[in-house]
Give the backbone structure.
Amino acid sequence: MGEEMNNKQVILNNYVKASVKESDMSLRTSKIQLKIPSGCDGAVLVKNLYLSCDPYMLSRMKKLEGHYVASYTPDSPITGYGVSKVLDSSHPNFKTGELVWGGTGWEEYSLIKDPSLLFKVQDKDLPLSYYTGILGMPGMTAYVGFFELCSPKKGETVYVSAASGAVGQLVGQFAKTAGCYVVGSAGSKEKVDLLKNKFGFDDAFNYKEEQDYNAALKRYFPDGIDIYFENVGGKMLEAVLNNMKLFGRVAVCGMISQYSLEQPEGVHNLSNLITKRVRMEGFIVSDHYHLYPKFLEMVVPLIKEGKITYVEDIAEGIESAPGALVGLFSGRNVGKQVVAVARE
């Protein structure tokens, strides 16, 4: 038998209807053996180092049928993406001591019975927390949505909403490496300054200070938008569709303005897709993980050469995890929201 340890876990108390509050989650301490049980083949036991807070997790807190990812089980630990260290393995692809990123529990230690969503940490010279962000799921999301779906050409105009978040900050920088003109929107002066001064966006605006999104977009894109990377939905999407150029592309990554609403807002001008011949496509990053090696080949040199930068907002300790997750939906975080559970 392995050593028995206390294991702090973040539990979903019950399904939520609209927005999520910290009181919808609780902390529980259970016991765990630091050895894989006999007969549990193909499993990995890990110590979780960093956990990723991501907007899609709210949909898993709701009782949804036929969703692309299963709802959480109330009175059980929630799960998400994280960076972990392998403590024991009965899987041929993973060895004790290796560092991995991918699907894990919101707890100090996890027994992962199906490690098909685990990837080995390839480059230990870069911060481990980057594998919750720029080198993990959000980085892949930015890469797939921008390059694979939108096929950018030099000189095109690009608009990114929620542009200071985990994905948006990368889309803007990828757009600059592709020779595009890029404008982002965010929800505070501090975030707008980050977009312009740290991430190299050509321009940026605070959407909370704009009474009329349509007029704002006309101001920043007098000749229209070639590529829109959609993170927000609702009224912003409606305004963008009025301002798209002919043959524009919209990569639909998320709609964070809608996730906390019991009755999502409609979009009333979809006929723009016809008249402007716009291609609008939704995507889920897990369909594209076969491109991960190609993505790393592109992004790691850019990071090491200082051509791409990444901002994280790190909350310390698993006790801070519920508050960090809830803060995503009010824009409390600046950059990628990470929870540091253990530093090694």
In short: The CA atoms of residues 158 and 182 lie 5 Å apart. The first strand starts at residue 4 and ends at 12.
